[in-house]
Design a protein that fits this description.
The strands form twelve sheets. Strands 12, 23, 25, 27, 29, 32, 37, 39, 41, 43 and 44 form an eleven-stranded antiparallel sheet that branches. By secondary structure, the chain is of the alpha+beta class. It is rod-shaped. The longest helix is centred in the N-terminal third of the chain and has 38 residues.
């Protein structure tokens, strides 16, 4: 139970006080009415004695009475009706609500912090009204009148006669059979005569004389002169007099309901007694049956037309009349305006005199008389006593069986019955606080009543015995709770009297609570809840809930559950406010604890009750909670919730149609998933024209690709900025999402749409229909060209001349669906745009069922939605939280978030807009295949564009042609059957190569530029608005097999320089699938011949292996090698050595061809590259022009870039490598060769019964003599292609492939030294001898053959050479081969060769048998003249020096 103002003892004492009746004359009432008060109301604040009172008990012991209170009421002759009492109690509870600003009691129990009402004034008001309105009954005397005050005004002509008349009225009411109500305590009721004197009227002497006459007639103990109204009513109200009546009158506003403010006092007649329900009776204004008071009708009597049952049922929802009256009475009326403080003291003195001299002596005398009667009867025998009882109980019913007795309320005693006399004495003792004597009497009476099976009387005695036991000072005996339990059960089950049972529960619960027996109190309260009274059940359940929460270990969930039950019963009783309060308090327990269904029920009820009470905001909030929590309700229930919500919301919006749009709870918006796209949608492909993919909302974000695009743009910007990267570079962002950098304000362009993709989620199992869906925005126009940007005007409404907004008329979301809505804005002015949220009508569609076999889910997809007509317009804000800041120490130790500005774009002035279309762009190519395609550039913006560049990470994939590129034919159709290469018809039949030269800078691979950034050769470098141009573009299939994604970034600028936006970019991702074609491997060796036939100097042999590794799926019939070209600054191919008679080199599937080519050193070392073409077909492809040279130079650059990155990896992994000194470098140069081979081919493909000719080229970069080089740059994926032992060689040698990788990276700091292989190329040796030598062995046994050993110094330094002619005998094979001939003469020669010097040495070989001999046995050692270490040169790469010795 909630806290209370009174203690339990005070409450119980005040529940039962001596009742005094009052009869007033009309004149007396007029005197009191000057103060807007009746007589009983006038004295009510002073009815509690401020001092102790003494009286003697029957044993003549002094008994002290403390804090005694008496009740003075007007006489009412009709008992109140039950329906009227219920209406009264209902109104009392309705009016009593929690005080505004009342500090709630915060109770912490476990995880719960609950705000609970500290007090329940409505319950206390109900309890007080209930106890006061209880009708008096015959089985007890507590609410019988003990005395009667007769009040007459001194201004009456004959006051004494008036007293006599009033005395007769009282006697007639008490003793006439005509009146059964009210009840009187004893036949000889105390009459106390009060003369009321109006001091303001004067005539004090007359009043005094009348009073003297009264004292003569009634004695000084029986009358009193009360003087009031010392202050005239016409005096000013300067003096502030306290108003002690307000608290009583306010408490009893409903009970008295007298219209004081209506002017002169009027008596309330029967016709409105159902509206005004005073408890204390009314004035004596009209006379019925000779009586001056309208005693016939009780103020609680209802009209005959009213149905008393409606106050209990669920239909009772509008106590409108009483609410109206209570509102009317809220206008404050001053009371006691004619009274001074002296008058207050006089009234107080009057009550004390009445109590001291009249009431208490009368009670004391009565108790003594009753006690004497009882004592005298104790002497009688039990049988006689029983006989007397039977005599007096003549009206008793015949004896019945126990079961029959228990089914009735028992006996009915006559008033003079001895048992009733005991009860009467007990009640009198109880009223004057003599609890011990009262208990004894109750206890005695209880036994007698039980013996007689008078269950109603016994229950009453048990009830009061328990209360008396509790109230005894010093608590000599424990509180007999079982007495109360028995009494309650008897009242309820046997006597069927719920009012008395309820009184028992109220009293006992208060006692148990004071003893902290909250569990027992709660059980008692719950026991009395029943269906017959919703209000009572609600109040008791609420008090039981408070018991649970106030226990030593608070039972929070029981508290909440019983609060819900109380709220439900309040609602049935029509107490909407109290119902709402109960549900709200219970919600604190259920909220956020996973009780989702309970939460939904509570919120739904709170919403409904709030709506009924017109608390629309609370209703909306409650319904909102039902919808936004992840509901576990069924679809039908969710639909009902949604319809209720929409109905309530519509009512709210109708109240303030011009107010701000309300926030809607549905559907959910995932704000962080909001994406913003700047620009037009991508154009679809038209036939062979494929638009650039650019970027769109349909693409998924990938951070890796995002970083690649940023790098590409940075390269383009740096190239446009003359090669210097910008320090404050920020990439262009067309699509902003949760992964992008949103810390800067994004840039939009005037007249270009801004698309906002909002992620909606429908959490319900019912579909939602959003209509008229659009964006909500705020715009500040600014002119960025003007100097003064300070003056801006802010426009919040949607001005269509500034911003155009797209509206989606219908947007259906199926149950539990996540769906994206793309909404567009069209800015027409420059300025700052802020996208605030979305605005839409929220509704639902009519529930569909399966009709004619059609599933309702199919209907939802048709686009024709049948709305149920219930929709509300509202908004949802898009509030995006920025990223968590985590850079500084302060940010790491606190939780701070950066800004997210994706919804706050700055609209800049007009910019050009480039669109790129690819014409006949292939999706599949062979590796190395060359294909000519066309690109169309179109400016769809409104201002010219310039400076178009394209940047890609794969520049070797495409080219627009160099400065020498042929731009004809200009149209794709004209070039359909033409070769992609520039060709000339080969005129001569010579096998020698045709040479030409080219500069790498012509093809964008010069020393100081970035080959990744290519200028697009637009005519005049400008593209006007609406103009378009087509340019040829050559593609070359990447060397690796598989699917390739190649990114192009087109960069362009406006002719006008803007402060906000400097450039724009367009992205395109080309997906090319390449299939295998050829693999080319090449090796270069030094030729054994020191000079060629023409004397052209140094020459080499180049062996080229070409293998067809194409798979049959590509449909390639065969490859033709049409030309092999070389490219070098120092070397050129001269001729093909092993050309067969069939000039056409064809390679079918898995065939391999081998070419041996002769290369000679160029006569003049020039800066330009020399291209030499060896043509195997009828047409020469000029390899020094586009596109052949383009792709060669680009692949050369990519190869160079790749080797550098590998070197940087090696360098970072190991220690810093020392740079080789000059001597070592000279040695290394000997084995270097800078020769590049281009193999050009044609492939014949059968596709759709048509034969197509494809062209292509492969590149091999030769760096080192004797080392095999490959046409593909990486070994991954080619192991299975080669499928032979060469792979192991490749693995061993691959780390040395590269332009500048001249030494193996080793983690050592030793000085760099040449490898053995490099030393082997220092000296080139050649043996000159006759191939066949015939000797007559039969004549001369020794055959001596002259042999010339030519030594050539290949380096630029002096070299010391040692020639050792002794045979190495390291293995049996060498013995077998070399044992049969010997060198004659010196076994060792030493000589020094100058730079590039050629020296000859004459040797003699001696043979003793015929046979074939290998003369290549001399071992040549060489060292640089200024070095110490000697190395042997290797002849392993030379041809065997075989000689045939014959016999003649």
């Amino acid at each position: 139970m909630a806290q209370r103002v009174q203690s339990a003892q005070e409450f119980l004492q005040d529940s039962f006080v001596p009742l005094v009746a009052a009869l007033c004359s009309e004149e007396a009432e007029k005197v009191t009415r000057k103060n807007n008060l009746g007589f009983c109301e006038l004295i009510k604040p002073f009815c509690r004695l401020t001092s102790e009172v003494h009286m003697r008990d029957p044993n003549n012991q002094l008994h002290i009475i403390k804090n005694l209170k008496i009740a003075v009421n007007n006489i009412i002759t009709q008992p109140p009706q039950q329906g009227a009492i219920r209406k009264l109690l209902n109104d009392v509870v309705t009016v009593s609500q929690p005080a505004e600003g009342l500090v709630a009691n915060v109770i912490t129990a476990g995880d719960y912090d609950l705000n609970i009402s500290a007090t329940t004034p409505w319950f206390e008001a109900y309890r007080e009204s209930f106890l006061q309105s209880m009708p008096s009954s015959d089985h007890e005397f507590l609410n019988h009148y003990v005395a009667c005050m007769l009040v007459v005004s001194s201004s009456e002509p004959e006051p004494v006669e008036q007293f006599l008349k009033l005395s007769q009225e009282q006697h007639q009411i008490q003793h006439s059979n005509e009146y059964s109500y009210p009840k009187w305590f004893i036949p000889n009721t105390l009459k106390y005569y009060v003369l009321l004197h109006d001091v303001s009227l004067g005539e004090e002497q007359r009043a005094d004389s009348i009073y003297e006459e009264m004292k003569q007639r009634y004695g000084t103990q029986g009358c009193y002169l009360l003087k009031i109204n010392s202050r005239g009513s016409n005096r000013g109200t300067d003096e502030q007099i306290p108003d002690p009546w307000s608290q009583y009158l306010q408490k009893n506003t409903i009970q008295t309901q007298e219209p004081y403010e209506d002017g002169p006092y009027t008596v309330i007649s029967n016709k409105n007694s159902d509206h005004f329900i005073p408890l204390d009776g009314l004035g004596n204004d009209s006379k019925v049956d000779g009586l001056s008071n309208n005693f016939k009708s009780h103020p609680l009597q209802l009209d005959h037309t009213s149905d008393s049952s409606c106050f209990d049922g669920t239909d009772y929802v509008k106590p409108n009349s009483s609410m109206h009256e209570s509102k009317k009475l809220n206008t404050w009326t001053p009371h006691g305006t004619c009274l001074t403080l002296t008058d207050h003291d006089r009234i107080r003195q009057f009550i004390q005199e009445f109590t001291f001299r009249g009431l208490l002596p009368h009670i004391e005398k009565t108790i003594r008389q009753l006690n004497d009667q009882l004592i005298s009867r104790k002497g009688l025998s039990r049988s006689l006593f029983s006989a007397t009882k039977k005599w007096f109980s003549g009206s008793k019913v015949p004896e019945k069986s126990v079961n029959e007795l228990k089914s009735t309320s028992g006996l009915l005693y006559p008033p003079e019955a001895p048992e009733l006399q005991i009860r009467k004495m007990a009640d009198l003792c109880f009223l004057v606080q003599h609890y011990e004597l009262a208990y004894n009497c109750y206890h005695t009476a209880k036994k007698d009543f039980l013996n007689d099976q008078a269950m109603l009387y016994a229950a009453g005695a048990l009830e009061m015995a328990a209360v008396s036991a509790f109230l005894q000072p010093g608590a000599p005996r424990p509180y007999p709770a079982h007495y109360m339990d028995t009494a309650i059960q008897t009242y309820r089950d046997i006597c069927k009297n719920m009012m008395l049972a309820e009184r028992c529960v109220l009293l006992s619960a208060e006692v148990l609570k004071s003893q902290s027996k909250y569990s027992e109190a709660a059980a008692l309260l719950i026991r009395l809840t029943s269906e017959d009274s919703d209000l009572r059940s609600a109040l008791l359940l609420e008090q039981a809930a408070h018991c649970f929460i106030n226990m030593k270990s608070p039972m929070v969930r029981k508290f909440a559950f019983h609060m819900i039950l109380a709220g439900h019963r309040y609602s049935k009783a029509g107490q909407k406010k109290h119902a709402l309060r109960c549900y709200c308090q219970a919600m604190q327990v259920y909220k956020g604890k996973g009780w989702s269904l309970a939460e939904d029920h509570i919120n739904f009820t709170i919403g409904r009750q709030s709506f009924t009470l017109r608390q629309l905001d609370n209703a909306v909030s409650a319904f909102r909670h039902i919808l936004i929590n992840d509901s576990k309700q069924s679809a039908a229930q969710q639909g009902a919730f949604l319809r209720e919500y929409l109905y309530v919301y519509r009512n709210v919006s109708q109240l303030s149609p011009d107010g701000p749009l309300p926030q809607l709870p549905l559907p959910y918006i995932n704000s962080s998933a909001t994406r913003v796209f700047f620009g037009h949608d991508r154009r679809p492909s038209e036939g062979e024209k494929q638009a650039a993919t650019h970027i769109s909302l349909d693409q998924e974000y990938e951070s890796e690709f995002s970083y690649q695009w940023k790098e590409l743009e940075e390269q383009a910007v740096a190239a446009a900025n003359k090669g210097t990267a910008l320090s404050n570079f920020q990439p262009t962002q067309y699509c902003l999402n949760k992964y992008s950098d949103n810390s800067r304000f994004p840039l939009g362009v005037v007249e270009e749409p801004i698309t906002v993709e909002v992620a909606f989620r429908n959490p319900l199992k019912v579909p939602l229909l959003l209509t008229d869906l659009s964006l909500l925005w705020k715009f500040q126009p600014k002119d960025y060209n003007s100097k003064n940007n300070g003056e801006t005007k802010e426009v919040e409404t949607s001005g269509k001349d500034m911003i155009g907004a797209e509206v989606i008329s219908e947007f259906l979301m199926n149950s539990e669906e996540t769906k994206m809505a793309r909404l567009k804005l069209f800015p027409h002015q420059t300025g700052e745009l802020h996208i605030l949220g979305v605005v839409y009508n929220l509704g639902t569609i009519q529930s569909t069922s399966v009709l004619d076999g059609v599933d309702p889910s199919v209907v939802l997809q048709t686009g024709k939605f049948i709305s149920n007509g219930m929709s509300v317009r509202g908004r949802q804000d898009l509030e995006i939280q920025g990223p968590r800041l985590n850079s500084t120490k302060e940010e790491k130790t606190s939780i701070k978030y950066g800004p997210d500005r994706r919804l706050d774009p700055i609209i800049t002035e007009e910019m050009p807009l480039l669109e790129v279309f690819f014409i006949n762009f292939p999706t599949g190519l062979l590796c190395g295949e060359i294909r000519k395609t066309y690109v169309e550039f179109m400016n769809v913006g409104k201002c010219p564009l310039t400076g178009v560049k394209v940047v890609s990470k794969r520049p070797e994939f495409f080219t627009f042609g160099g400065s020498s590129a042929i731009l004809t034919p200009l149209s794709p159709s004209a070039s359909e059957h033409c070769s992609a290469y520039k060709t000339v018809v080969k005129h001569s039949t010579s096998l020698y190569s045709l040479t030409s030269s080219a500069d790498s800078s012509d093809f964008g691979v010069g020393t100081g530029c970035q080959p990744e950034v290519i200028d697009v050769p637009l005519p005049d470098s400008v593209l006007l608005p609406g103009a378009s141009v087509q340019l040829p573009m050559w593609l070359r299939g990447p060397d690796e097999e598989g699917v390739h994604e190649i990114n192009f970034l087109f960069y362009y600028e406006s002719i006008r320089k803007h402060s906000k936006m400097c450039h724009r970019v367009l992205r395109h991702t080309a997906v090319i699938c390449t299939s295998r074609s050829l693999t080319v491997r090449a090796t270069v060796y030094r030729s054994n011949a020191l000079e060629d036939e023409k004397g052209d100097g140094d020459n080499m042999l180049v062996f080229v292996d070409v293998e067809n590794i194409n798979t049959s799926e590509a449909g390639v019939k065969e490859f033709h090698i049409v030309q092999v070209s070389s490219n070098s600054k120092n070397w050129k191919l001269q001729e093909s050595i092993n050309l067969s008679e069939d000039k056409d080199i064809k390679l079918a599937n898995r065939e391999k061809g081998k070419l041996c080519l002769k290369a000679v050193r160029c006569k003049h070392s020039v800066e330009n590259y020399t291209f030499a073409d060896i043509v195997f077909g009828s047409e020469q492809i000029i390899s020094s022009t586009s596109p052949c040279a383009d792709f060669f130079f680009r692949s050369l650059y990519s190869d160079l870039k790749r080797t550098r990155s590998q070197q940087s990896v090696h360098t970072s992994q190991g220690a810093a490598k020392p740079s080789p000194d000059n001597a070592v470098r000279l040695i290394q140069k000997c084995s270097e060769v800078d020769l590049n081979i281009i193999v050009l081919w044609k492939a014949y493909v059968v596709e759709d019964n048509k034969q197509l000719i494809l062209e292509g080229q492969h590149h091999v970069v030769l760096h080192t003599v004797g080392k095999e080089a490959f046409s593909f740059p990486q070994k991954q994926g080619f192991k299975k292609i080669l499928g032979n032992s060469d792979w192991e060689d490749l693995e061993q040698e691959s780390s040395e492939i590269g332009l500048f990788n001249f030494f193996r990276p080793e983690n050592t700091s030793a000085p760099a030294r040449p490898s053995l292989e490099q030393f082997s190329n220092l000296i080139k040796t050649s043996l000159h001898y006759p191939e066949t030598y015939n000797h007559p062995f039969h004549q001369k046994s020794l055959c001596i053959v002259p042999v010339t050993l030519l030594l050539s110094n290949c380096s630029q330094a002096d070299v010391d050479v040692i020639i050792d002619l002794r045979h190495k005998t390291t293995s049996p094979e060498t013995l077998e081969i070399h044992g049969s001939f010997t060198w004659l003469g010196q076994t060792q020669y030493k000589l020094q060769l100058k730079s590039q010097e050629v020296s000859s040495l004459q040797l003699k070989a001696c043979f003793v048998h015929t046979g074939v001999y290998n003369l290549g046995t001399p071992r040549v050692f060489a060292k640089l003249s200024d070095q110490v270490t000697l190395f042997e040169t290797s002849q392993q790469n030379s041809m065997p020096a075989l000689i045939i010795i014959g016999n003649v």
